[in-house]
Specification:
Oligomer: homodimer
Low-confidence stretches of chain A: none
Largest sheet of chain A: 7 strands, parallel
Largest interface: A-B, 68 and 69 residues
Order of helices and strands of chain A: EHEEEHEHEHEEHEHHEHEHEEHEH
Strand content of chain A: 25-35%
Strand order of the largest sheet of chain A: 3-2-1-4-5-6-14
């Protein structure tokens, strides 16, 4: 019997979840929920209904786990606690500072109705968090480093698009190679924001726009660019479509630590991701943790969980015997 | 109240556990158990007794978790099930093919007497296993690669030392850089044993020994060297002591996979370790998992566990609130 998955929200992430489900033989897509007119939403899986988000309650007993694919800024803080009263749910909430509040909200909603809610699943938060935790527990005396990229930051791209005279923009976050090398060499360097990442922007200007003014505005934008070394390249719409249509991303988590009675031995733990598609990879992590949510629910272990609370074996479709024989 | 740890076996690994305990403020070393005459064993922690292994039963109620630091070939298959009848235990059993049998033996011994036994903890098996599992669950359609080194293989060094005319030897396992690059590029290359690693040997010959014969014997030794490109360097005892006295090791686990409706996007997950001291790093992993064993015992969740069965949060000395706020 396969795990019946619902997808709530059908943007890039929802589409990624749909293709992830196809790779997991123990899962099936039961329905896609959308706030748009369901008739306007075409999905890639035949025979699966698209349902108006307003009618989600009717699916209360037809979905084992609902994968919520909304945005962290305004969608998930409301959607996840609300849907946790009806379903076992999982989301990719990624506003780090607000995770404790979100955890508490989802925990009480889920416990009230005997459901499981898994939050903040993806790669950061998610796999990067796990690697920070494991590495901190092993190398107690050490320092953490996280680098992002090379990859597209959608928030930064959007910020550029809001500047007058900009027709389109893509922003890549790029780790500074020399900083990364210093960390890998065990030098434990203190690194400022500027020393860790550079920002590389590709901009299509509208006809007659003042390019120098656009470049100036980008480079001085507080929070987004002012603290970084930023490069701005103006390109044509054709070049944008040809060379910058993907959503690649990735990054690295490192911990550099010392052991021995006198701290005489150095160690480096490094975890890195190189992703052609940020949303599809995040979706694959969500699918694996949806399996874990299902198992927690079967064990009547209700409430909110994070990647920290979940035994790794719960993610696997393989039997316990098989993972011990083949992966340990 | 701190977790009272016992160390059973005081070789390189036991010494590493001793220094790891000093880095973890919630742990204290209660006793060291040795098969040698206890009076001949000097340990680095003041005020802690060294006890004959024969008297271990007297410590039945004085140890929260016993970290067993014996060898996998002959010690652990006997020691871990036997000690699991008296204590919560943890070991670094690393004979991959025999893990299912060891699991069953420890599980029944531990359940019989309401104890917890955590087996096969370290970096491989251990952290590498975890990364194989997580990566397999995320990238369902993909291929796994494990590389070891650059590092000292004690088994291979010992094999060289058994050759006539050899006074001392050190063998380094070295990953083949071009193979690693092909994997990182997402080429999913099929790799033979010879294509993945080379073996680099430093040998001190006895006076008058036939060096050509030694080199020949090393290069043709079945299982250990015959399937590899092996380099043999003869050095002096002084060079050996100066340049090859450490036990560095490390390695990489990679998974290369595809996502998307038509497998159109590639992804690489890479985990790597660079370790100045193999036994001290393994000891740090054991210490963190000893904390998990203690928590399982407190929750009366008895029997055998592996790294796959343990929620990551159990490894941390921090509160659940703190790990969510600071590491997620």
């Amino acid at each position: 019997m396969s795990i019946k998955i619902g997808i709530y929200g059908y943007g890039n992430l929802g589409k990624g979840v749909e293709s992830a489900i196809k790779q997991n033989p123990d899962m099936e897509l039961a329905a896609v929920f959308s706030r748009r007119n369901p008739e306007s939403v075409k999905i890639a899986t035949e025979g699966v209904p698209v349902i108006s988000a307003d009618s989600v309650e009717e699916y209360k007993d037809k979905i084992d786990v609902m994968i919520i694919c909304g945005g962290s800024a305004t969608d998930l803080p409301k959607q996840t606690p609300k849907l946790a009263k009806l379903f076992n749910v999982i989301d990719s909430f990624d506003t780090h500072a607000k995770i404790p509040e979100h955890f508490a909200n989802v925990d009480s909603a889920a416990k009230e109705t005997n459901h499981v809610g898994v939050i903040s699943v993806g790669w950061d938060p998610g796999m990067f968090s796990l690697n920070r935790l494991y590495a901190n527990c092993i190398l107690v005396d050490g320092a953490d480093y996280t680098f992002w990229g090379k990859g597209v930051s959608q928030g930064h791209s959007d910020a550029i698009r809001r500047i007058e005279g900009v027709a389109d923009a893509r922003q890549y976050t790029v780790p500074v190679e020399s900083a990364l090398e210093a960390v890998r060499n065990g030098e434990n360097p203190p690194l400022s924001t500027r020393q860790k990442h550079t920002r590389l922007c590709y901009v299509v200007a509208k006809d007659g726009a003042d390019k120098a003014a656009i470049e100036e505005q980008i480079k001085n934008m507080p929070n987004y660019f002012a603290d970084y070394d930023t490069t701005v390249n103006f390109i044509t719409a054709e070049e944008m479509a040809k060379n910058h249509s993907g959503l690649p991303h990735g990054g690295l988590v490192l911990r550099s630590g010392k052991t021995g009675l006198n701290g005489e031995h150095k160690h480096i733990i490094e975890y890195s991701l190189k992703l052609d598609s940020n949303p599809e990879f995040t979706a694959c992590v969500l699918a694996a943790y949806a399996r874990a949510a299902y198992r927690f629910a079967q064990n009547k272990c209700f409430g909110c969980k994070t990647v920290f609370d979940i035994p790794p074996a719960y993610l696997s479709a393989m039997s316990h015997e098989d993972i011990i024989s083949h992966l340990l």
